[in-house]
């Protein structure tokens, strides 16, 4: 490992036989690797003490700032085992820049892009054996929180940045399948001027009550409308949305500061346009969604994100009337875009946009 990162190997790593058993059907976010990456920050010393060490519980003071004022951000990306035997990250530079954007919004220090990427490289290097084969991947979770011990409303002066890793399979049980979503009429995810475009834990915490209502209605996910008019479709609890019209045009809500600028979203827009499809980033109303689905003008809808990649939306449940999209299954364009993205991520197709960050 480069000298910039100290490596303290785990003295008691998981035995290879136990690791192999855990990776047979890992699910999502429950099987963790042996190590974690850590970098500290203080106003006095800046970024310092970068190291990879054994994954272990944290001991923090009960007056740590994050526990009271929620200065916390995170990212999500994956390392893939390639067909040629190598490994690669997918667009880590984009995650690094979004991490900086989130930090800026929450008055936190911005981690330099090279340190962000190197922390992930060093962790993957240490835990390469945890990358599943087949359709699995190593999910990486960089995060940062305010660790200064004080009670008082101000930006903290000390922070802890960490990366942990998890062997994962399909996000949805049973693999890629059409989901049913619930339209939240009572709760919104974000408003103009808020933290909607930042990837901070508070956004997800605020969405959970609506997600709980969705589950109670027999749905997989919640879809949020805008905070002002309660009319314009924004995003799911953790994924961006696309709508496919009968002429092949794709429509997706614009990035106006209230929804997360998804890296998978951006990648799919690029792939769709390269494939000759028209993509419009424009507002799309819930009433229009229903009318287009009922008339047949809307033939497909899908959600996307790092965890689930591409997920078809088959049915929408709403207090003002339920409706199905197309035949309620997976549409051709949804499937085509998913296959194109997956092929690049796993190194089985050309990478014209240089998205893969190879690790060897």
UniProtKB/TrEMBL annotation:
The entry's keywords: Amino-acid biosynthesis, Aminotransferase, Branched-chain amino acid biosynthesis, Pyridoxal phosphate, Transferase
Gene3D superfamilies: 3.30.470.10, D-amino Acid Aminotransferase, subunit A, domain 2
Reactions this protein catalyses: L-leucine + 2-oxoglutarate = 4-methyl-2-oxopentanoate + L-glutamate; L-valine + 2-oxoglutarate = 3-methyl-2-oxobutanoate + L-glutamate; L-isoleucine + 2-oxoglutarate = (S)-3-methyl-2-oxopentanoate + L-glutamate
GO MF entry, a single one: branched-chain-amino-acid transaminase activity
Superkingdom as given in the UniProt entry: Bacteria
Pfam annotation, one family: Aminotran_4
Pathway noted in the entry: Amino-acid biosynthesis; L-valine biosynthesis; L-valine from pyruvate: step 4/4; Amino-acid biosynthesis; L-leucine biosynthesis; L-leucine from 3-methyl-2-oxobutanoate: step 4/4; Amino-acid biosynthesis; L-isoleucine biosynthesis; L-isoleucine from 2-oxobutanoate: step 4/4
InterPro entries per the UniProt record, alphabetical: Aminotrans_IV, Aminotrans_IV_CS, Aminotransferase-like, B_amino_transII, BCAT-like_C, BCAT-like_N, BCAT_family
Cofactor: pyridoxal 5'-phosphate
Keyword Disulfide bond: no
Its biological purpose: Acts on leucine, isoleucine and valine.
Name of the protein in its database record: Branched-chain-amino-acid aminotransferase
């Amino acid at each position: 490992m480069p000298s910039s990162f100290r490596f303290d190997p785990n003295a008691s790593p998981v035995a290879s036989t136990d690791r192999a058993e855990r990776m047979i059907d890992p699910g999502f976010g429950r099987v963790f690797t042996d190590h974690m990456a850590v970098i500290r920050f203080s106003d006095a010393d800046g970024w310092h003490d970068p190291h990879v060490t054994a994954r272990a519980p944290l001991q923090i003071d009960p007056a740590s700032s994050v526990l009271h004022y929620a200065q916390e951000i995170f990212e999500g990306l994956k390392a893939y085992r390639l067909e040629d035997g190598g490994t690669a990250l997918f667009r880590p530079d984009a995650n690094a820049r979004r991490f900086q954007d989130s930090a800026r919004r929450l008055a936190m220090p911005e981690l330099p892009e090279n340190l962000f990427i190197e922390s992930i490289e060093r962790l993957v290097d240490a835990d390469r054996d945890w990358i599943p084969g087949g359709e699995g991947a190593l999910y990486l979770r960089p995060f940062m929180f305010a660790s200064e011990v004080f009670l008082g409303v101000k930006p903290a002066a000390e922070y802890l940045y960490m990366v942990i890793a998890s062997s994962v399979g399909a996000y949805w049980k049973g693999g890629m399948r059409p989901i049913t979503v619930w339209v939240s009429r009572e709760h919104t995810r974000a408003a103009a001027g808020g933290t909607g475009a930042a990837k901070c834990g508070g956004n997800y915490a605020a969405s959970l009550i609506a997600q709980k209502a969705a589950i109670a209605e027999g749905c997989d996910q919640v879809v949020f409308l805008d905070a002002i008019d309660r009319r314009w479709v924004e995003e799911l609890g953790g994924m961006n949305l696309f709508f496919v019209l009968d002429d092949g045009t794709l429509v997706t809500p614009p990035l106006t500061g209230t929804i997360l600028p998804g890296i998978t979203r951006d990648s799919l827009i690029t792939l769709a346009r390269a494939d000759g499809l028209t993509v419009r980033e424009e507002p799309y109303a819930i009433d229009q969604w229903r009318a287009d689905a009922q008339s047949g003008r809307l033939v497909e809808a899908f959600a996307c994100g790092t965890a689930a990649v591409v997920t078809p939306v088959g049915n929408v449940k709403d207090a003002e009337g339920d409706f199905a999209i197309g035949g309620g299954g997976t549409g051709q364009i949804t499937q085509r875009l998913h296959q194109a993205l997956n092929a690049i991520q796993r190194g089985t197709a050309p990478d014209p946009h240089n998205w893969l960050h190879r690790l060897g």
